[in-house]
């Protein structure tokens, strides 16, 4: 292949040389067939993570796929040379930086152009020599009368003068001159002395200042975990939110898991990762995976009307719960028999969120099922009741068998368990007052999940790694089944049409919301109720994501900024979600 070949040509060449079709290559990676087609067709410039995945699957180096840049551009050379010679001045204010910064630049650029290698070696040698002179001058100050003082105060001005001279010299002539330098590093790698000294210097530096742990964001930029923690403390204090759990994912794994504040703020009882937290509509995300598992097992089909599975009409069954399986209101309804499992999961049943939002508080279908998005807990409850009648098992038993037990989610359930009394979080209203804990909910797939930050992190990890169900099922979940064009998800604006979110193709999958970004598709699920406000968003193609759980009513007022700071997620439709920042 020519060194000037494009990445599309290189990928096609390497794929064909290995005998892979586009489909076979896609199966060996997490990269979709469509993405491979677009790369080979020169339609997109792929993210570095995508190139790494493809290179690993093809068993080649990343450099075999990425076209080389020309390192000899004059402006580029001047910039790097200037950095090599000027950055050691940082050592005046930050000890050891006069060596570490040019050393880093030399290691990073030495193979791009011989001039970088030559100048880098001379700069590093001079700066190490300067450190030795500084130590010797300090010793002379303590041991040599009169002259020791003059030696001590002369070292820094002389060295700084040499550095300034070389900054000017390199800009004018592309040359440098550092007298007195000891050749710890040589152009010909024959001596080990320089390497030993450098290793020792790095060890000393690492002991005195540990490297901060970082998290990679969507755009490839890094942020330290300490910075995230500091930002969370600041946001919580400013917005007066006193309880939160957060997990951040890189490479399909949680890389940051922290809890902050209190499970009971008035009594200052501390929140932990094993504290029981009401999951609210996080319930729906779990229920969506459960339904797809039952679809795989042949219990139900996504597009068969649910009414057809039962030996009698749904409204003819005597209710077994206080309210949620009472469908007597549907006796005169001619539209509900058209409802399928897919419509329940993508919120197109025509049911309102709950029956008590109707003027007469009676359940009814408000439009042709399957034609329009309308967020509905009732739709998922209808699907749940049909599944319970088909399997002879309650929701709690099904969830334990297929989700909670396989994932080791020992502190999760769709109903209250006595063991949860050992430690549970209370919700808090806008004033920060704790609310009474509701413990008598009957299991409902739309909203009775009890879980912990630790358990729900396990669940999201399983989703990112496509456990529990097949890739084909996840592809169904992570696809838009209905486009959303409403101004807001709820309340005023839920019936107002807008094109504001067309650029992200906002829609709904199966149990999860859906939108698209420059870094691939994203799926999200929120939760809100009883003083608890949660949000999660996953980016399956990059293996990144975040989970935020709060037990304060105004918790969502910091979600927008948290998403932007932690992941550079500027795509989540925060206005549609009504995540209005606390300072707006």
UniProtKB/TrEMBL annotation:
Tell me the compartments it is located in.
Answer: Membrane
Q: How does it sit in the membrane?
A: Multi-pass membrane protein
Transmembrane intervals: 80-107, 119-141, 147-171
According to its UniProt record, where is this protein mainly located? membrane
Q: Any idea which UniProt keywords this protein has?
A: Membrane, Transmembrane, Transmembrane helix
**What segment(s) does the record annotate as region Disordered?**
1-21
The record's annotation in InterPro entries points to: Beta-lactam-related, Beta-lactam/transpept-like, Cro/C1-type_HTH, Diverse_Enzym_Activities, Lambda_DNA-bd_dom_sf, MamF_MmsF
Sorted alphabetically, which Pfam families does this protein's record hold?
Beta-lactamase, HTH_3, MamF_MmsF
All copies of domain HTH cro/C1-type, residue ranges: 11-65
Please give the superkingdom of this protein's source. Bacteria
The molecular function terms in GO held by this entry are: DNA binding
- UniProt-listed PANTHER family: BETA-LACTAMASE-RELATED, PTHR43283:SF18
The identity of this protein, by name, is: CubicO group peptidase, beta-lactamase class C family
What lineage does the source organism belong to? Bacteria, Pseudomonadati, Bacteroidota, Flavobacteriia, Flavobacteriales
């Amino acid at each position: 292949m020519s060194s000037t070949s494009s990445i599309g040509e290189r990928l096609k060449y390497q794929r064909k040389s290995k005998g892979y079709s586009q489909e076979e290559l896609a199966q060996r990676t997490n990269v979709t067939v469509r993405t491979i087609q677009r790369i080979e067709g020169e339609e997109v410039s792929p993210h570095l993570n995508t190139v790494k995945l493809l290179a690993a699957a093809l068993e080649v180096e990343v450099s075999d796929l990425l076209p080389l840049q020309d390192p000899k551009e004059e402006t580029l050379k001047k910039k790097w040379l200037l950095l090599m010679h000027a950055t050691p001045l940082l050592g005046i204010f930050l000890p050891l930086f006069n060596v570490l910064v040019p050393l880093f630049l030399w290691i990073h650029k030495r193979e791009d152009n011989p001039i970088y290698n030559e100048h880098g070696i001379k700069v590093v040698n001079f700066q190490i020599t300067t450190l030795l002179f500084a130590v010797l001058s300090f010793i002379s100050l303590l041991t040599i009368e009169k002259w020791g003082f003059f030696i001590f105060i002369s070292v820094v001005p002389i060295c700084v003068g040499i550095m300034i001279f070389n900054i000017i010299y390199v800009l004018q002539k592309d040359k440098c001159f550092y007298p007195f330098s000891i050749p710890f590093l040589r152009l010909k790698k024959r001596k080990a002395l320089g390497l030993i000294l450098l290793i020792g210097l790095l060890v000393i530096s690492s002991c005195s200042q540990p490297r901060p742990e970082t998290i990679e964001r969507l755009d490839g930029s890094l942020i330290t975990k300490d910075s995230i923690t500091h930002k969370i403390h600041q946001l919580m204090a400013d917005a007066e939110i006193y309880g939160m759990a957060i997990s951040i994912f890189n490479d399909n794994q949680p890389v940051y898991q922290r809890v902050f504040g209190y499970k009971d703020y008035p009594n200052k009882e501390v929140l932990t990762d094993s504290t029981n937290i009401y999951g609210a509509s996080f319930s729906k995300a779990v229920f969506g995976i459960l339904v797809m598992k039952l679809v795989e097992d042949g219990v139900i089909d996504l597009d068969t009307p649910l009414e057809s599975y039962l030996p009698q009409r749904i409204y003819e069954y005597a209710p077994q719960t206080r309210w949620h399986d009472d469908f007597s209101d549907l006796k005169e309804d001619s539209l509900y028999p058209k409802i399928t499992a897919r419509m329940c999961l993508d919120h197109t049943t025509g049911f309102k969120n709950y029956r008590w939002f109707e003027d007469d508080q009676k359940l009814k279908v408000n439009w042709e099922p399957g034609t329009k998005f309308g967020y509905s807990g009732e739709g998922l409850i209808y699907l749940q009741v049909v599944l319970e009648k088909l399997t002879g098992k309650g929701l709690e038993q099904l969830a334990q068998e297929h989700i909670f037990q396989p994932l080791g989610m020992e502190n999760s359930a769709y109903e209250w368990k006595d063991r949860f009394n050992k430690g549970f979080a209370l919700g808090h209203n806008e004033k920060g007052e704790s609310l009474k804990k509701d413990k008598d909910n009957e299991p409902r797939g739309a909203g009775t999940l009890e879980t912990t930050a630790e358990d729900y992190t396990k669940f999201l990890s399983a989703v990112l790694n496509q456990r529990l169900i097949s890739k084909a099922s996840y592809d169904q979940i992570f696809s838009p089944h209905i486009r959303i064009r409403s101004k807001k998800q709820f309340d005023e604006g839920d019936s107002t049409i807008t094109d504001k979110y067309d650029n992200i193709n906002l829609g709904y999958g199966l149990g999860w919301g859906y939108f698209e970004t420059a870094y691939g598709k994203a799926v999200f699920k929120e939760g809100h109720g009883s003083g608890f406000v949660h949000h999660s968003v996953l980016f399956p193609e990059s293996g990144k994501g975040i989970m935020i759980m709060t037990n304060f009513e105004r918790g969502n007022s910091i979600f927008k900024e948290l998403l932007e700071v932690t992941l550079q997620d500027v795509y989540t439709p925060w206005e549609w979600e009504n995540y209005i920042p606390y300072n707006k």
